[in-house]
Amino acid sequence: CTLGTVSQIMSELRSFRPPVIAIVGEVAGAPLEMDWFTNRPLSGIRLLVTSSESTATKLQSLISEEGGIAVVEPAMKIMPPALWQEIDDIMHNIGRFDWIVFASTHGVDIFLQRLWDKGLDGRAFKSNRIACVGESTATGLKRWGLLSDCTPNEAGIGNLVSLLLPECSGKRYLFVRTATGKQLGIDALVAAGASVELSLIHI
């Protein structure tokens, strides 16, 4: 194949559709080690992503960067609670808690959006400290202009609770989480003398 014949050859290859990159000359015989595109770890592999649509985008991008094909089929849908009264009451009395603990980015977004909708803002947390279950949740919190006071290096409710336990006696905690969240960490705080309330912000 030369520059003079490449056009004719490509036109006869019906399976090729624009955009196409054609390599002409000696470089086409370069070692396979230079074939970085098809040698990526997930090249040609189709992966099913079952996380919610709001979190699937980042994973889909990472899979694509490694050569894979991400098929997004959410197995769950994140929904706010049907009734807000209990959560609204908590928001208007949020100053009675020493710590607000966010267990997910979904919880951050739904809770704070409701807070804003009720005419409140970040100043509502002036007497609280805020904890996040991991860096991803802390990043979500930062998008709302708030910083986490306590975030474990390795995400996980157990890791977060281990940081909170030493000074938890007599403190009041509000856990913002899903109805199916783990109870183990909460039980440990209660056993150590803390008072814990739950805000089941999404299902």
What attributes does this structure have?
about 200 residues, alpha/beta, four-stranded parallel sheet, two-stranded parallel sheet, 7 helices, 6 strands, about 30% helix
Summarize the structure in words.
This protein is α/β, with parallel strands linked by helices and 203 residues long. The strands form two sheets. A four-stranded parallel β-sheet has the order 4-3-5-6, with helices on both faces. The mean pLDDT is 85. 32% of the residues lie in helices and 15% in strands.
Write the layout of secondary structure elements.
Elements: H1 6-12, E1 46-49, H2 53-65, E2 69-72, H3 85-92, E3 99-102, H4 105-117, E4 129-132, H5 135-142, H6 157-164, E5 172-178, H7 184-191, E6 195-202
Parallel strand pairs: 1-2, 3-4, 3-5, 5-6
Helix pairs in contact: 4-5, 6-7
For the largest beta-sheet, the strand count, sense and barrel status come to: 4 strands, parallel
Strand order of the largest sheet: 4-3-5-6
Strand content: 15-25%
Radius of gyration: 25 Å
Specify the number of helices: 7
Structural class by SSE content: alpha/beta
- Gross morphology is elongated
Spans of 5+ residues with little confidence (pLDDT < 50)? none
Output the helix-strand order: HEHEHEHEHHEHE
State the total count of DSSP E strands.
6
Calculate the mean pLDDT score and round it: 85
Estimate percent helicity.
25-40%
Distance between the termini: 60 Å
